[in-house]
């Protein structure tokens, strides 16, 4: 009987694992100041202890914000940083600086944590840590491999060994260095000099932070980005076209937002004829 109970319990564990989502929930463990979060088509302020979700667009305006997921991946956003949380604990970095440490893994099938940027994708290996910076208006990407080996997912892939630094331009060309440049070190937050550590959130998660509808200016940098995540934005923010101001801004910038054209000017359906009256 006991043996059967053990088998039954094990079956429940396996079933729960199969039914659980492939991603892990993020929590805002600590932050020097509230960060702006665009969730769905709404904007809110997140504080320490809040649960974050896939698709959240984050903007840290002052200080450093520490995040962690339930499987042990740690991340820190520097000041003036825009990042997006995507599935499977991956992060998209639009601008600013990000320090990320992947959880150690004993399985041979562990996947790296991916950091998507406009210059390309950085894969952070299991148990590795890296600093990734996308200085605004420079069209370059700075990567410092703190521990372990990171990989720039190009063709062919380019490894960045532990202790090495690399600058990647907008054409995907990697320029390696034996150590970080002085300019990179000067831009980095002081908190990034220390290894990331798991933190216990100071405050419990709030049920529902106050929010408002996203304005065009809240998401304009994301709409105009070259990130692969951009493709999902027209469907995500389609409801905001009901707002006259938002719709006018999209129309003004339609030359750089071609993926919105079909929403503003839907093609006529075949077989449907407009009736003209004299």
Explain how this protein is built.
With 278 residues, the chain is an alpha+beta fold. It folds into two domains: 23-193, Jelly Rolls (Sandwich); 215-264, no CATH class. It is 18% helix and 31% strand. It is built from six helices and 18 strands. The protein has helices spanning 2-19, 182-187, 216-223, 233-236, 244-252, 261-264; strands spanning 26-31, 35-39, 42-46, 51-52, 57-60, 65-69, 74-77, 81-85, 91-101, 113-117, 120-124, 129-134, 141-147, 150-152, 158-160, 165-168, 174-177, 211-213. The chain has an 18-stranded mixed β-sheet that branches. It starts with a helix and ends in a 14-residue tail after the last helix.
Summarize it:
The protein has 278 residues and is α+β, with helices and mostly antiparallel strands. The chain has helices spanning 2-19, 182-187, 216-223, 233-236, 244-252, 261-264; strands at residues 26-31, 35-39, 42-46, 51-52, 57-60, 65-69, 74-77, 81-85, 91-101, 113-117, 120-124, 129-134, 141-147, 150-152, 158-160, 165-168, 174-177, 211-213. Mean pLDDT is 85; it is low at 1-23.
Low-confidence stretches: 1-23
Query: What shape does the CA trace take?
Result: globular
Task: Please give the number of β-strands.
Answer: 18
- Quaternary structure annotation: single chain
Distance between the termini: 86 Å
Remind me, CATH topology of the largest domain? Answer: Jelly Rolls
């Amino acid at each position: 009987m006991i043996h059967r109970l053990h088998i039954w319990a094990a079956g429940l564990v396996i079933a729960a694992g199969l039914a659980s989502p492939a991603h892990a929930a993020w929590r805002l463990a600590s932050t020097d100041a509230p960060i702006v979060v665009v969730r769905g088509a709404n904007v809110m302020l997140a504080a320490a202890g809040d649960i974050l979700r896939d698709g959240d667009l984050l903007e840290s305006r002052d200080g450093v914000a520490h995040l962690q997921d339930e499987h042990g991946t740690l991340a820190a956003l520097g000041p003036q940083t825009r990042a997006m949380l995507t599935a499977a604990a991956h992060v998209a970095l639009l601008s600013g600086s990000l320090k990320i440490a992947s959880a150690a893994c004993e399985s041979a099938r562990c996947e790296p944590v991916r950091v998507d940027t406009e210059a390309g994708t950085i894969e952070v290996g299991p148990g590795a840590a890296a600093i990734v910076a996308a200085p605004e208006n420079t069209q370059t990407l700075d990567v410092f491999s703190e521990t372990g080996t990171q990989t720039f997912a190009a063709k062919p892939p380019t490894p960045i060994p532990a202790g090495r630094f690399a600058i990647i331009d907008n054409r995907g060309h990697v320029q390696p260095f034996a150590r970080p440049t002085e300019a990179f070190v000067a831009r980095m937050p002081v908190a990034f000099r220390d290894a990331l550590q798991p933190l216990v959130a100071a405050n419990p998660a709030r049920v529902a932070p106050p929010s408002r509808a996203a304005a065009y200016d809240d998401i304009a940098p994301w709409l105009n980005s070259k990130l692969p995540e951009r493709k999902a934005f027209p469907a995500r923010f389609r409801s905001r076209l009901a707002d006259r101001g938002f719709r006018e801004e999209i129309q003004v910038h339609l030359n750089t937002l071609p993926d919105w054209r079909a929403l503003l000017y839907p093609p006529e359906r075949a077989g449907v004829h407009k009736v003209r009256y004299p």
